[in-house]
Amino acid sequence: MRTILLAVVVIPLACSPGPREPASTLQNPTSSQPTQQNPSSLSATPKKVDVSGYYLLTGDVPSWCSNIDVMELSNLIPVRDSSAPVGFYWRVVPLWGVIALKADSGVERTDFRLVNVRLDGSRLTFSSKEVDSISYTFAGWFVRLGVFLDDWRGGEVVLRGHLQKLKAGGVISEADVAFEYIPGD
Q1: Which residues pair with 104 in a beta bridge?
Q2: Within a domain: residue 39?
Q3: Does 129 fall in a domain?
Q4: What is the mean pLDDT of residues 154-165?
Q5: pLDDT at 185
Q6: CA separation for the pair 99, 110 (Å, rounded)
Q7: In contact, 22 and 148? CB cutoff 8 Å
């Protein structure tokens, strides 16, 4: 039985080399105008927020991140318990997740465990652990907040920001990205 995790998927909007400003102040490379809405303009935070789920890449995906299958975010972990009706129960934990690469010709998928995941209001930041010297970082914001599973709107971009791919700690690729939420299976 597959454990269902909540996930996040990355949607690249533009690729560019070199260091970047924080996601809330990203600039269009050909103008001085911001390319994305400032998270401070987000309406009041809803009473209940749960961003756990799957987020998928959509739109024009740069070749360097076309192998990303899904990004998952969750605030639950399964805990084995033989006395529970299904053999486990869910424990609430701080937000965590993975960036999962697509499986390759019978080879299991590669998961990059997210660390330092921070949700501060609408702002989301994280980095990942290294796998074979590769890791990822993200800084962005939710366009809207709420309980996405209860208020799923197919095709809606709910998260924007800047994704970087690193090798041995140095940035090798980066893009402004947007994420679409999808409910789990």
Answers
A1: 107
A2: no
A3: yes
A4: 92
A5: 59
A6: 8
A7: no
By the 8 A CB rule, do 161 and 177 touch? yes
Q: Are strands 170-182 and 88-101 parallel, antiparallel or unpaired?
A: unpaired
Which tokens go with 185?
């299976």
Token couple for 61: 């995906």
Q: Which domain holds residue 124?
A: 11-24+48-182
Structure tokens at 163: 């994704």
Q: Flag whether 84 is in a domain.
A: yes
CB 174 within 8 A of CB 32: no
Q: Tokens 């999808």 — which residue?
A: 182
pLDDT at 138: 96
Q: What percent of the chain has pLDDT over 90?
A: 43
36: confidence class by pLDDT, cuts 50, 70, 90: very low
Q: How many domains does the chain have?
A: 1
